[in-house]
Amino acid sequence: MEIKIVKQILEWNEDVSRQVTEELDKNRVCLINVMGSPGAGKTSLITELINRLRDSYSIGVIEGDIAGQIDADRIATMGIPAVQLQTDGACHIEAMSIQNILPMFDLESLDVIFVENIGNLVCPAEFNIGEDLRISLLSVPEGDDKVEKYPLMFETTDALVINKYDMIKYFNFDENRVISRENEANPDAPVFRVSTVTGEGLDGLTGWIRERISNKIGK
Amino acid sequence: MEIKIVKQILEWNEDVSRQVTEELDKNRVCLINVMGSPGAGKTSLITELINRLRDSYSIGVIEGDIAGQIDADRIATMGIPAVQLQTDGACHIEAMSIQNILPMFDLESLDVIFVENIGNLVCPAEFNIGEDLRISLLSVPEGDDKVEKYPLMFETTDALVINKYDMIKYFNFDENRVISRENEANPDAPVFRVSTVTGEGLDGLTGWIRERISNKIGK
User: Quick check: pTM over 0.80?
Assistant: First the structure.
């Protein structure tokens, strides 16, 4: 019975997701859905990517949180237009929320919107929000078994970003296990090893994202 | 519309949750619901608590995961009866699952059941599973803003366990922020600082749990 209810919501979400994609395509905006556990470093990654991309692209951010506006405040201090989406307890972002928020941006002048999804390895993966690109973060302290334990997240992502890589010497984290399982589950997704603290790996990730943006919006 | 559906599920869950509690009370079994992010160290904490409690109590474990049986395998190698609950994509454990699993244990001889909930700071907090005790883990690498960002989890817990405390020197983690926010949100919940790697803090936490078990089952 419960499964049936979830399906109804998902089907409804798919319709709206397609409408969001159409609106973004019309305005040549690339939507990037950033997902990962609480504390994986999603906001820090987005700020580092903005620093590396803002000379080339006009960028906006939608910050999803259960409550509060800590993350949107961080983005706004960078002079980047940010909308805080408060899900009021819900564990994922749905396409309808993105549809409601898009008119708050000047879409004609924007090139890229980053969406920081709710910190959660489960539900966000089930809900398309009209994105062009999914980026999933896994941070070293979380452990090397997460690709196996949260399969949908890592099967449906366009790239796996292993964050807090500078901490790998302090943790029992077998990166080969993570990478080989990701390659099995999702052979097309590249794996990037980065640290938002030391900066390592971020240029490689930025280069890959830049190419994907360029493929979509033609600049 | 979506909110209405969630409420229906929650109400249904509450009925079953009460039935689970009655069954546990009748058999003098204490159910401990362990929650936290992916990789916060839930399985490691449970194994360390078992090591410290197994001389006094007969213990069983229900391991909740989206997929796989990595965690139940770890518990079973300790000679502890373990049931792997696979939620097949669902992001939390519901009381109905616990009700279905209880007959798989010899409840008359058991004293304590640990339930390792799905790695998720959101949904598990919404679903009572008939537990006597909720323990919420937050690991240092996740960051010091989680009590604010995931309020229900930390408001409804009986104890906050800050895990990976041995790593605090490597991370920008303001423990006073975490503790003061937890005290505001939930003044009755003690905060324990532990490391399942070095063992620090585990005896204090075990003592507190032992008292709670004893209050319920009288030994």
Answer: yes
ipTM: 0.71
Number of compact structural domains in chain B: 1
- Among B2, B66, B149, the residue with its CB nearest the CB of A65 is B149
Is A125 touching B (CB cutoff 8 A)?
no
Nearest residue of A to residue B86, measured between CA atoms: A149
* CATH number for position B60: 3.40.50.300
Cross-chain residue pair A66–B149, CB shorter than 8 Å: yes
In this predicted structure, which of A72-76, A87-91, B36-40 has the lowest mean pLDDT? A87-91
Q: List the B82-86 sheet strands across, edge first.
A: B82-86, B59-65, B112-116, B30-36, B133-139, B159-163, B191-193
What is the band of B22 on the pLDDT scale with cuts at 50, 70, 90? very high
Residue A18 falls within a domain, yes or no? Answer: yes
Residues of A in contact with B123 (CB under 8 A): 91, 122-123
Cα nearest neighbour of A122 on chain B:
B91
Residue A60 and residue A113 in contact, taking contact as beta carbons nearer than 8 Å: yes
Q: Do B43 and B141 touch, CB atoms closer than 8 A?
A: no
